[in-house]
Specification:
The structure holds two protein chains of two kinds. By secondary structure, chain A is mainly α. Chain A is about 75% helix and about 0% strand. Chain A has a domain of about 160 residues: MetI-like (MetI-like fold, Orthogonal Bundle), CATH 1.10.3720.10. Classes of the chains: A mainly alpha, B mainly alpha.
Chain lengths: ~350, ~325
């Protein structure tokens, strides 16, 4: 009797597991589909918007060219055909992994090669800064939460952390990056000779750019951890655990932290992307020969094809980041609803 | 008094019982209870007002009150500055007696914030730039609120639209806002209008989502169901029943939109797509200050505009957050 009941239970559990797996698969397919449609929309919009640009952006020496030369040049680029045709060709080109050639930055040089040569450095700096951000942000958030819950009136860490978070969130990044560059360089110069700009072979010049880039993610991580730990510590399940006599360390580790990790994991891929965006600024300030600096550079030179290609690369990266984040979240958190009924995130 | 009344009631009942209840008229059987305000149970709403509670909690927060005062003073000064005596023209280039431009003059009583590389007065340029940036911020905030509320209410209220709008939102939300900003500024000519358009294009999505979520929460409350049953037109329900509950969200989003718009203006200017130099803005003041930042003596050209900018953005940020906390009814129960 008892064994049969056991079996029924197990069967039910297995059935619900199967249903969950099926739901998950459906969710993944839907999510990937949605990302692809977004990407399609972006590619179309970018292409159409750039057709509005003056045609100078397609030629290196526009001023010296005759109208006939311009017409021939446009025909060579395939830009004299009707728009739907151009769009179709553009998609075909992208599918082949060809992003066209640069017209001003490096004349007639394939853009994909430019990007390939710049990507590794940007990624290295981006990943290092995210690592640093988590390394600094997580302890800060935990310290803030601890001091916020403590009985003392001072709550020093909480106040300090809040000031840091507000400064980083409210002051434009473009402004505090500058001050880090000015005063950070002066400060570090007292310890060792430090050039203002980035030199790949000198590790000491990596410090300030990486630190600058990490600040945004650090503030996000600290603020979030603090809020979560404070909110969660008054919940019933934590009180029950405490009443049962579970030691405080185990409560933090086994109960609070496990719940806290889920949204954190969802956010990390996006923050990596955000770091890529922040690198636009940092890379051009420190003359780091990476992707972000390149985008600022080609915008100033009005090199249409490279701008178009870089915008596409960045969009792909951020869409991919959001996709990975959502999938990780769905895999990690059994409470998440996979059907579309929950509406917008 | 009550005792006597009860006594009398008991006597009446005894008399009635002797006669037999069934034959009695209703008025004799029942006597209405007297209303005694002192003895009623305190059931009623204790004079709770949503707005009064929100404002009281907001006013209790000393830090946010400090920033409210600070931003009020800054705004007042920014807009009053051109009317003060002895102000200089933000665009005019000043020459000394020999006719040479007063370049990079350090701050003095004559030029309070000094002059820039071509001899323009930085004091008046800074305040004029603050006006431009605040104008951008306010316009963007208003447009965002208008579009966001319109779309958000439709999205939340019309059940048939929910699926479509949610799908659309999930698609558009994936588009990185920074790239939209860059692309629009790149394609259109740098001008006030371009910056405002580029900034307005992205921010309303979040407002719409907040509004939609709030509308869904209150859409099917009893009083709205009652209104709908009584045949109140949807427009009237939305305007009179829903909008008052959205005011806090709208205010909070608008307060946050201003620092966001201002810092994006700086960003766009930095990558070379900002306003032309004839229109001073905090963005192009800061970007021209960057050229001088490696010379410690000329650093004032960067520091003054960034100081004003930081005061404005931090104040709006803190106020927006404090207001969001204060307007959350969960925090009203003390």
């Amino acid at each position: 009797m008892q064994t049969s009941m056991h079996n029924v239970k197990e069967e039910r559990a297995a059935a619900s597991m199967g249903a969950r797996a099926e739901k998950m698969a459906r969710y993944l397919v839907k999510r990937v589909l949605r990302s692809s449609i977004t990407l399609l929309l972006i590619i179309t919009a970018v292409f159409l918007l750039l057709r509005l640009m003056p045609v100078e952006g397609y030629f290196n020496n526009y001023e010296k060219m005759s109208p006939t030369q311009i017409r021939v040049g446009m025909a060579n680029l395939g830009l004299d055909r009707p728009l739907p045709m151009q769009l179709k060709n553009f998609f075909a080109q992208i599918l082949k992994g060809d992003l066209g050639v640069s017209n001003k930055y490096r004349v007639n040089y394939p853009i994909i090669k430019i990007i390939k040569s710049k990507m590794p450095l940007s990624m290295q700096i981006g990943l290092m800064s995210v690592g640093l951000a988590l390394l600094l942000g997580a302890p800060l958030g935990i310290l803030m939460a601890k001091s916020a819950r403590s009985k003392s009136k001072l709550k020093l860490w909480d106040k300090f952390g809040t000031v840091v978070v507000v400064l980083v969130e409210a002051v434009p990044a473009s402004v505090y990056y500058l001050f880090i560059q000015i005063y950070g360089t002066e400060l570090l110069s007292r310890i060792m000779p430090l050039p203002t700009l980035f030199v790949e072979e000198k590790p000491e010049t990596w410090i300030l750019p990486i630190f600058s880039l990490s600040l945004g993610t650090m503030a996000w991580c600290a603020m979030w951890l603090r809020r979560y730990m404070v909110d969660e510590s008054t919940k019933d399940y934590v009180m029950l655990a405490r009443a049962k006599g579970v030691p405080p360390g185990a409560i933090s580790r086994r109960h609070i932290a496990r719940n806290a990790i889920v949204p954190l994991v969802q956010g990390i891929p996006t923050t990596v992307i955000l770091t890529l965006m922040g690198s636009l600024y940092v890379e051009s300030r420190y003359s780091i020969p990476g992707m972000g600096g390149l985008l600022v550079d080609v915008i100033k030179r009005q090199d249409n094809t490279v701008v178009q290609a870089l915008v596409l690369v960045y969009s792909c990266a951020s869409i991919l980041g959001l996709l990975i984040g959502d999938i990780l979240m769905a895999l990690l958190d059994p409470r998440i609803r996979l059907s579309g009924k929950g509406g917008a995130r | 008094m009550r005792k006597r009344k009860n006594q009398q009631l008991a006597e009446d009942l005894a008399a009635a019982a002797a006669r037999g209840y069934a034959e009695l008229a209703e008025a004799e059987l029942f006597s209405p209870a007297e209303y005694l305000p002192d003895e009623t149970e305190p059931l009623s709403y204790a004079g709770y007002s949503y707005w009064r509670s929100s404002l009281r909690i907001f006013a209790k927060n000393k830090i946010s009150m400090f920033f409210t005062a600070l931003i009020a003073l800054t705004l007042l000064f920014t807009f009053a500055q051109p009317f003060l005596p002895n102000q200089k023209d933000p665009i005019k280039i000043y020459n000394d007696e020999t006719g040479i431009q007063i370049r990079n003059a350090v701050p003095s009583s004559d030029f309070i914030f000094g002059t820039n590389a071509i001899g323009q007065d930085l004091w008046s340029r800074t305040w004029s730039g603050t006006r431009t940036s605040l104008f951008i911020g306010f316009v963007v905030a208003v447009v965002e609120a208008l579009i966001g509320v319109l779309i958000g209410v439709l999205w939340g209220y019309m059940r048939k639209l929910d699926f479509l709008f949610t799908e659309l939102y999930n698609m558009f939300d994936n588009i990185p806002q920074t790239l939209v900003l860059i692309l629009i500024s790149y394609v259109l000519h740098p001008s006030l209008r371009t910056i405002i358009i580029a900034l307005c294009l992205t921010g309303w999505l979040t407002t719409a989502r907040y509004v939609r979520n709030q509308v869904i929460v209150i859409r099917d409350r009893d009083y709205n169901l009652a209104s709908r049953c009584l045949g109140t037109p949807a427009r009237r329900i939305i305007l009179h029943n829903l909008l008052p509950y959205l005011v806090s969200i709208i205010t909070m989003r608008m307060a946050m939109a201003i620092p966001y718009a201002i810092s994006n203006e700086v960003f766009v200017t930095y990558i070379g797509l900002g306003l032309p130099l004839q229109i001073p803005s905090l963005g192009n003041l800061i970007v021209s200050g960057i050229d001088k930042m490696m010379d410690p003596n000329l650093r004032y050209q960067l520091i003054f505009p960034t100081a004003v900018l930081s005061v404005v953005t931090i104040s709006f940020y803190v106020i927006g957050n404090a207001f969001a906390d204060a307007s959350d009814p969960k925090n009203h129960v003390v």
